[in-house]
Each structure stands twice: as structure tokens, then as C-alpha cells.
Amino acid sequence: MAEGSTIIEEARCRTVFDSRGNETIEVEIETLGGFGSAAAPAGASKGRWEVVSYPPGGISEAVKRFREQVAPELIGLDAIQQETIDRTLIRIDGTDNFSRIGGNVAYAVSLAVAEAASTSLGIPLFQHLSGTLTRRLPFPLGNILGGGKHAGKGAPDIQEFLVSPLGAKSFREGALANIRVHKTLRSLLEKEDIPFFGGRGDEGAWAPALSNEKAFELVSKAVELVSEEVGFKIRFGIDVASSSLWDEKSGVYVYHHERSKMPGEQIDYILGKISEYKLFYVEDPLHEEDFEGFAELTRKAKDCLICGDDLFVTNVHRLKKGIESKSCNALIIKPNQVGTIIGSKETVDLAKARGYVPIFSHRSGETTDTHLAHLAIAFGCPLVKTGILGGERIAKINELLRIEEFLGEEARLAELRIG
Ligand code: 2PG
Ligand code: MG
């Protein structure tokens, strides 16, 4: 390697489109010996405490600020010093929520720099971030049916029904099983007496006009059928994205397919579903301020991951609060909720130290980038939530297949014991 080949020589940005057709920021970083690029994803059911995606003035202002304030400071820095890069972004921004330069700009810079470092060094991104002994791949956690803010009118209130092939022996076998459940569910939906034309929501999950009850029944059936076919355990769970259902004024969760629920009723409803369908995973069952409700549910739920997404927003301070109140036993990691790789890593490290299961996740508005696959492995997340279908989702799955092949005989699936 030529000396100085990891030094940043050029930093530029442009806007491109995400999977929902919205503009997003893409950053490119050049070193003498390498190149990296990253475009930011976007949420629809965003948490209140996520960093701000773009400064006032929107994406065009973010581009301007990147060119004037961020790019000049990056030139000359060493791309392998991720902490310095991320701290520089925080310093330039000067706020605690990236409201000046935009969290999506920070995200794209952080990831593009990491990729530039890895290509300069001639090693895969996950090895650059975590070393050559890393070899555990996550189980895929894939969205097969859903509604909420990711779909149109009449779809279930519950945002996501997610399956995971927990008995699979390899990532490839697991990914294939998830795809089979997705396909099987389609044929079950076609047999139902509902208008179903194969419509899918933002993350590639089926999005028919269907009650929550019927959705539970059909997903459970599809999982059972495919589990029998493939001969190993497949489990399912949900992301309720409850902050989207919560009406703060009236203090109830407003459902369209069934009666609204008071917080206590919501907890009972979720506990009922966990035991009826043996759910192994429940994300955001309560709204993003209800740490106590999360704690009660975590205490009462048996053999189930109670996962905080909007509750924690990948933020180490929110997680500390959750640890104190004993809320959840799992959490979602989305780097653009905090803006940097180092910020996300800090949260993952604390989570692991306190026995929380970290789950690396896409956003509903995605790009075709594949960094997520590398970060999920580098951070040692036993589950990766990436969707099952759609080019932008498949891009991540395919990258995980490539990494599994690259690791060859050394590849292992994560250790995850539930129930
Ligand atoms: C979620 C995510 C991804 P969004 O709620 O977990 O599935 O959705 O990106 O819209 O926040
Ligand atoms: Mg969520």
C-alpha cells in the first residue's frame, strides 16, 4: 500500500432518488488508493428523537452546506480514522441532533468514508470495521405483510409482520426460506375473498386490505407450511410502530380495523398475540415515550424479544434510560437515526454489555447501497431486518450471500437463543 493512500483527497455530493422516489443525499469520497460512496435512507414512521435529516431549507440547503462547510474539512483527514471523521462531523454541526448539516449528510459521509478506507486497504468493509476474525452472519428478519404508514388505506394497522428462519444452517438457506414464506403468503392471500392484486408496501411486503386478525392467521399459516417444507424452525413477529397509532390527546391507540385501545389494553392485546401465535419478536408495541409500559411488557412477555425502535432511536442516552427502567431486551440499530457509525457502535456496545439483542435495520425508504450487510456483521447483530423483496432490499440480502461465500468454511450464523 502506498503511503498516505487512505488520506481523503476529494469529497463531493449530489442528490439521487430513494426507493420511494424521494430525493436523498449521496456522498462520494476519494483517497489516493480508494473510493467510497453512500446515499442515505429515509424513514416514514420516524421516531421523534431521531436526528434531523436535513437543515431548514431542506436537501438543497444540505448540499450547499456540505460543499461549503463539510467537504473542505474532510480533505486531508485519514479515512481509516473513523472516530476522527465522525467527531469532525459533530463539531462542524455544533448541535446535538445534526440540525445544521443534516443527519442524512452525516450518515452518508460516515459510511462513504468507511467504504473509501476499506477499498484503500483492499479489504471488505465489515473487516475494516471489525477485523478479520469476524465471521458470524445475522439471521434475516424479513417483512412479508404489513400496513400502517408503509401502505395504503385498508391494509392492517400493524406496520410489519416479520419472519425469521431461526433453524436455518446458513444465511443462504435462511434467506431462501424467507422468500418461500413470502411466496406462500401470496398464494394464501389469493385464496381469500378479498380484492388482492399483488400490491406491496414500501418494503416489498404484501399490503392487502386485511384486518389485523386475518393477517395474524394467514402469516401464521404461511410460516407453518414453509417450516414443514424446509424442515426447520421459522418464527414470526411484528413491528407495531405504535407511535403511528398513538393519539396523544385522547391517550389511546387508534386502530382502523378494531376498537381503539387504552395503554393497559394495548399491553394485554400484545401479550395475547405473543402467547396465541408464539411471537418471538415484537417491535415498538407501545408509543415512544412509554418506557414504563415497555418495562411491564418486557417483564410479562415470555420468550419474546421486546424491541425498541422509535423508543431508543439508536441513541445511547435513550438506551441508558431504557436500561434504568428495564424496558425491552432488544433494540433496532439504524445509523441514520444518530447520523454516524461511531454513534451507532457506541449504542450497540452498551446494548450488548447489558444483554440487549441489537438488530440492524433498513429504513422503509432505501437506496441500493449494501453497507447495511457489512455493518450488521461488523457490529455482531444476530438479526438483520432488510425486507425480502424489492431491488433495494435484495441488494442487501445478495451482499450477505456474497460475504457468506467470501468467508467460505469460516462462515457461521449468529447465536440467538429464544424460547
Ligand atoms: C421501522 C422502519 C423500517 P421506517 O419502523 O422499523 O422497517 O420503518 O424506516 O419508516 O421508520
Ligand atoms: Mg420499527
Layout: helices, strands, pairs:
Layout lengths: L7 E10 L5 E9 L3 E5 L18 H17 L7 H12 L9 H19 L3 H6 L5 E2 L1 E8 L13 E5 L6 H21 L20 H19 L4 E5 L6 E2 L4 E2 L9 H15 L3 E3 L7 H10 L4 E4 L7 H10 L4 E4 L1 H4 L2 H13 L3 E5 L9 H8 L4 E3 L5 H17 L4 E2 L6
The structure holds 2-phosphoglyceric acid and magnesium ion (MG).
Structural domain count: 2
CATH superfamily of the largest domain: Enolase-like C-terminal domain
User: What is the overall silhouette?
Assistant: globular
The CATH topology label of the largest domain is TIM Barrel
Strand content: 15-25%
Q: What's the alpha carbon Rg, rounded to whole Å?
A: 21 Å
Could you name the CATH class of the largest domain? Alpha Beta
Strand order of the biggest β-sheet: 5-6-7-10-11-12-13-14
Largest beta sheet, briefly? 8 strands, mixed, barrel
Short description:
With 419 residues, the protein is of the alpha/beta class.
Tag the structure with descriptive keywords:
alpha/beta, binds 2-phosphoglyceric acid, Enolase-like, domain 1, 419 residues, 13 helices, TIM Barrel, eight-stranded mixed beta barrel
Could you describe the 3D structure shown?
By secondary structure, this protein is of the alpha/beta class. It has helices spanning 58-74, 82-93, 103-121, 125-130, 171-191, 212-230, 263-277, 291-300, 316-325, 335-338, 341-353, 371-378, 391-407; strands spanning 8-17, 23-31, 35-39, 136-137, 139-146, 160-164, 235-239, 246-247, 252-253, 281-283, 305-308, 330-333, 357-361, 383-385, 412-413. The chain has two domains: 8-122, Enolase-like, N-terminal domain (Enolase-like, domain 1), CATH 3.30.390.10; 136-413, TIM Barrel (Alpha-Beta Barrel). Helices cover 41% and strands 16% of the residues. It has an eight-stranded mixed beta barrel, surrounded by six helices. Helix 2 (82-93) packs antiparallel against helix 3 and helix 5 packs across helix 6. The longest helix is centred in the middle third of the chain and has 21 residues, at 171-191. The model has no long low-confidence stretch (mean pLDDT 97). Bound molecules: 2-phosphoglyceric acid and magnesium ion. Residues 239, 241, 283-284, 309, 332 line the site of magnesium ion.
